[in-house]
Design brief:
- The chain is of the alpha/beta class and 262 residues long.
- The chain is built from eleven helices and nine strands.
- The protein has a single domain (4-261), classed as UDP-N-acetylmuramoyl-L-alanine:D-glutamate ligase, CATH 3.40.1190.20.
- A nine-stranded mixed beta sheet has the order 2-1-3-4-5-6-7-8-9, sandwiched between helices.
- Helix 4 links the parallel strand 3 and strand 4.
- The two termini are 12 Å apart.
- 55% of the residues are buried.
């Protein structure tokens, strides 16, 4: 992809409203990330209004990090609205392998056929029904170990599946890409992974889903690289990361995206 920046340009022109049903830890960080990126964030999870609000949004991000039965119901309601309106929605199956309840709820959401699924290798393996060694939201499996599961999951659900790691792997079951942008410092600031989901959702509005997902992950990783070049620790990195999300231009992204066929 030598036109990666075009997807950033289109997203900023659209400035989509992204409805996020995410965890308590991520809400503030995710809102700031989306604002810096050029999208409009909203955090709405009450069952009584999620369906109505989802009808106003251009995309939906679902993250099960700190959910409960009421939030689970709200997630299904909002996803149903997006499906009916043919709008993109992304599922982040945080720690899906950790408890039976997480597996149960993710199974129901998976049956609703998300547009995009993004998780670490252990989460993708667990979601695909394979044995994995996940410890909550942390990955104990390598991206390479999850690539076949990601392709199977994509083929079975029709979703684009993105496996996050030192080198990300993104597939629609037929075509696959690797994205090598990023920096280890990104793992030292809580909720940056969760916040990525909203950015992917924003990029996917009105754009080809595989290419938009690849571009979003390259953009996010490039911001991490640039922030790490100046930050001396996680605190400074968090502020610098938001600044870099804001300042990266489409031309910057096209020039610096590390995207290769897989």
């Amino acid at each position: 992809m030598n036109d990666t920046g075009d997807y950033l340009d289109q997203m900023r022109r659209t400035a989509p409203l992204v409805h996020n049903i995410t965890n308590y830890v991520a809400m503030n960080i995710m809102a700031n990330v989306l604002l810096a990126t050029g999208a409009a964030p909203a955090m709405v999870h009450a069952r009584e209004e999620v369906g109505e609000f989802a009808g106003l949004a251009q995309a939906l991000s679902i993250n099960i990090g700190t959910f409960d039965p009421f939030w689970a119901e709200a997630m299904e309601i909002a996803a149903g609205v997006m499906i009916k309106a043919d709008k993109p929605w992304i599922l982040d199956p945080v720690g899906v392998g950790a408890t039976s309840y997480r597996r149960q709820v993710c199974g129901r959401l998976l049956a609703m056929r998300p547009t995009i699924i993004r998780g670490n290798a252990s989460e993708v393996l667990a979601l695909a029904g394979l044995q994995a060694g996940g410890r909550g939201p942390e990955a104990t499996d390598s991206v390479a170990a999850a690539e076949a599961a990601a392709r199977d999951l994509a083929q079975g659900t029709g979703a684009v599946v993105a496996v996050s790691g030192p080198v990300d792997y993104i597939t629609d079951g037929r075509t696959s890409r690797r994205v090598a942008n990023g920096d280890p410092m990104m793992t030292r600031v809580t909720a940056l992974g969760c916040s990525l989901n909203g950015v992917i959702a924003a990029f996917s509005v009105g754009q080809p889903v595989l290419q938009a997902t690849v571009a979003a992950m390259a953009y996010y990783g490039l911001a991490g690289e640039q922030a790490a070049a100046t930050a001396r620790g996680p605190g400074a990195f968090a502020a610098a990361f938001l600044d870099r999300l804001y300042h990266i231009t489409p031309a910057d992204l096209t020039q610096s995206a590390k995207v290769t066929p897989a």
